[in-house]
Every structure is written in C-alpha cells, then in structure tokens.
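Researcher: Please translate sequence to structure tokens.
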Amino acid sequence: MLGRPSISDSEFDGMLERLRQLEDEHPELQSDDSPTQRVGSDLSHDFPEVEHRVPVLSLDKAYSYDELIGWVNRTAGGSDAGASTGPDAGGRPTAATRAPILVAEEKIDGVSIVLYYRDGALERAVTRGNGRVGNDVTANVRTIASVPLRLRDSTTVAVRGEIYLPISEFRALNERGATAYANPRNLAAGSLRRAKSAETAAVPLTMFAYEAYFDSERHASHRDILHRMIQLGFRLNPTVGFFSADPAQLDGERERFPGAVIGDLAKLREFITRETEERSVRDYEIDGLVLKLDSLERREMLGYTGHHPRWAIAYKFESPEGVTTVRAIDVQVGRTGRVTPVARVEPVFIGGTTVSNVTLHNQAYVDALELGIGDIVAVSRRGDVIPAVERVVEKNPESGGAFHMPERCPSCDSVLEQHGAHHFCVNYECPARMRGQLYFFVGRSQMDIDSLGTETLSLLIDEGMVRDVADIYDIDFDRLREYEGFGDRKIAALRQSIEESRSRPYRTVLASLGIPEIGPKVVELLADAGYHSIDDLFAVADAGDPEPLLAIDGIGERTAEVIITELSRPSLRDLVARLRAHRLNFSEDGDASRGDDGVPQLFAGQVWCVTGSFEHFKPRSRAAEQIKRRGGRVAGDVSGRTTHLLAGENAGSKLARAGELGVEIVDEASFLQMLGGGKAESGHGPD
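Model: Translation complete:
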C-alpha cells in the first residue's frame, strides 16, 4: 500500500513467467485472480448493461469557499444533522450529538467505477453509466494492477473508485505515440472501453478507491470504512483531511492515516488553499475536493435527493480561462418551458476543449455581468466541464448595455412569465417545448427508441407527421418512403423500435413523459410507496391534498405541489389516454392472469435474475422488462429467493451460484419460446 516493492522487477518477471508455465501445464488450476490475468486477452468484448446495487449518484457542487462553508453550516451544524437526538441508552453521546467530523478528499478527474466483490473475489466491474445502469467492463478492469482481484478477507462488498492515467504516463504515451490525445481522462475512458483487454493492459491505468458498501459488515464512520479498505488491499489516495470543531475526537487517527491533515474547521481552509496551490504538481488531475460527513448515522438521517447525497458536496477549483468575444445571445426554450439565454462566442480553446456556446442561466446572471453583444469576456470551464462567462474584460461601446430577455417566446410568441430567477413559456403547446419533450421521450435513458434518432425525429416534426409523443405510435410508414434514405430496411427497423417501446414498464413510461418533478428517482419513490399506476396518482391530484405525497420520505412540499398541479392538467390526461390506447403501460399491478395490456402473467410469483449477453435483448434490461411485463420480479443477484436465472453468453459466477442453489436455469432460446412461439411479443424476437 505504500508503493515500495518487496522484490525486484526482474525477480517478479521471472516468477510471473514460471506461474504462466504452470498454468499452461495445468489449466484447471488457473484462477480468475491469478496475476497472469492482468495482461488481458485478445478476445473482443461487448459491454453489457448492468444495474447497480449501490447508490451511484452525482454530487452537489460549491464554487467558492463561502458556498462550501454555507453547506457545512447547514449540513453539519444545523438541526438537520440530528443534533437534538440526545445520548444513547448508556448515557454516552451518540454520533448525532458529538461535534460533526468532516472528511475532505481530492476529487480525481478520471473514470468512475464500481467494483463488486463476492466472498473476497472480484465478480464484476461496472462503469457509473447513468447512475442506475452502467456497462460491465470487468475484463478490462482486471488488467489494472491496483485493482485487487482477490481481497485479503472473504467479504462481500461494493467499492467505488476512480480510474485514472497518471500525467507522467500520459505525456510519455503522447511523446512516443502516433496519436496525440487531448487529456488523460479521455484516454483513460477510451482505454477502459477497448474491444480487447490486451489493449487496455497496454495503458498504465491505476485506481484510487474512496467508498465501500459492505454486505454484512457494519461500520460507524467513513474513517472506519477507509481503514477497512486499506486492510482489504485497496489503494487509497493518501491525501485526506479530517476536520471537526472538536478535533480531540480525532486523536489516534494519525496512526491509521499517517499522511492525513487533522484539525479544526480553520484548518480546513488551510487544506483547501494548499490543495489549490499544489494541484499543478500532482501526477494526477484533480478538479476539486469532496467534503463528506464522516458519521454514517448522520448520513442516513440526511439521505439523498434524486441527484445527489445530502451529506456530501464537491468543492470545484477555479478553472482555466480563455478570452473571447460574444458574437450573439440567443434564447432557448426547454421541454419544461424554461427559457435560457445562451452566448455564442468566438471559438476558444480551454482546458482541452473548444468552447463556442456558453449558457448564461437567467437575466439576473446577465445583469450581474452587465453583459452585452460584442463584449470581450473571460470564459472558464467550471468544474473543468461547464463553460461559464466569469467577467467582462472589455465592454463593447456599441452594445447598448446589458442584454435583456425578450418579452415573448421566440418559438410560439406567447408572453413569457418570470418565476423566481427564470423566465418560462407557459404554453404547453409551444413547438419548442413539444420538440424538447419528443427528444427527451425517445432518449436512451427513457423509452430508448433507438432507431428514432435526432435527424429522423426532426424530419418527422418538420413534415408535420409527429407533433407530440402519442403521434410516434401513429406514424405513416408508407409516407416515409417518399423521403430520401427511407428504404425498406430503415423503415422496418424504425417500426420495430417503436413497437418494442410499447413494452416498457410503467416506471419507465411515467419518467419518460418529462413531467416536471417526476423524474426516475421520484417515480421510484411513488411506486415504492404504493402508487402503482397513473390512476393512483390522478386520484391524489383530484383530491388536491399534498399530505399523502409529503408522507413519502424524499418528497418535499414544492415537489408535492408541482406533482398535483401537473397531474391535474387536462392536456396531460388527454395525452395519457392516447398513449394508453397505444398499449403503453400505465400500471405495474396486473390482473392475476393477464396484465393491463392483455399479456398473460406467465411469471407471476417468480423471481428472476438476468445475467450474460444476449443476441435478441440488447441491452439485456429489455429481457428484464419482458419478465416484469408478465408478472415476474427481477433481482440483481442470485439468492435463496431466486426461482429462475436467465443466462446468456459469459454468464459468469451467477450461473455457478444458481446451480448451487438449485435455481432453474433458462437459456435465451427457451426464454423466447416462453414468451410465445420463439418470439417476444414486443418485437424482441429473432431478426
């Protein structure tokens, strides 16, 4: 863990070669965690989608020290942190009454990864993806030397980490390679998705672990989890800080974390200043710091929003800047009606990316800058990602002052309304809003109508064939033949994609409608609280009482009010009725024998697990949808409650575990037969 090898490189190479010879002679003795497996394979890999079993959310962000301290005061010092819960039964102060401890860690600019270990062995490595579903890149991650293939204890745990390419290695690769890469992060991300793991092995990637979720072990603090990860063999970033208003609580931590900075909250500011200054001398890229509450009890009290945990925040460093000229300021209308000004600037290269468009957020943001067309401005990439105008360097004397939002919607000419800091077009039939809703509805993270891309959808909208999402299911495919590029094959693929989308589960359909405040997280909260159909939600809206919604942990007053208002809209009810007529799922509680769409509930009472890669179900979440549509439940892992395992190619350890537990194993061909005559009813059958 300290980076000091116990034997020489030549000794190691000799031992590795001897091990390789022994495994060649006795292949039955080779294990998945053998050091010979680090070199990778020349076999090609696809990257099947995998549902995460642990929270993989984003982080809330602070861009100044004052913002950060405001978060600290609200989160660690306020009543929300549980300071009034008192001592425990033995009279000792609980974690909720002691002075909160904050943990500060560097935010590595790499590729987020989740490592799943079962009984101490690496079972799966999954990219962050959209936070709910990621890609299985296990074969490639196995080539990374700092990723343990087997832990020092036989524990079951999920570990979050950041895979990155050291800057020195990146420069060396650029110097000797034919291709010049823009930055280490892009190269690391691309290497992790190489088709052949031997190619990944050729890139010297490494990893820092920073969070762990144990299956059976119980820990009280993040410090304990960090120390436990060290014991298990993970490589942790030695740059870490522990801070508290009562630093005496941290006595003894220097023994467990020799390089840690420990002190009171005043020391935290020194830590941030030092990290900002020393950022440029690190051999890895960092774009900020992550501040977390140490107490797991406090974390549980605070919980999560749909986007981020309430107990952690990312402090973003000031970003590199470029100077450019504002050529124009346009306004864009989003799917929710929010109207956002966008600066079109002379292209400028900042931090590895060319920036030509910069969001201006709202009128208050523009007024604070006193920004006008023709002004020379300093542009940064906040968090090294989001372009932002930081200040006006030189005013254009002919700009006429600061830009002002128009009074009317540029798309439908409706009068704009201001709510808080933002302007909105409140016309639900605004063409720009409806176009945005259509793009959102067909997206991969929503209904996933993969043959209905932006270009095709734009044509359908422009030609008047599609106006809202229900029109997608009434497309005149014969008329499409009149347009260039729409031959039989393309039309067949489009027809199949649309047909397949009819089988999407209720939760996906509801989240895909783009109703304000009803995103995937809120949909999960509503359904898990017993609202298993759109009619259940309509009944709450008709009652006009937000209390049933406020009783759901994670739904606040504003969200409840917006849900009731939106679900009361006649236009939304009409849209739902039309989509129902097209057989989309608006309930997850089917009849005992048939679902709401008439599909026999063949799998009622059964618990399925899906693993491996499939020919007719890409991504494999579509196989899970077929199971749910027929009344079955889908679990992320094989357990004593599992009744069936749907096993595709490269099924891995779940197949072995299913055999041990006597779970019925179903291959793809048999599954297709179960669905009906060798073909999925939603069009997932053989091409």
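Researcher: Any highlights?
Model: The mean pLDDT is 83.
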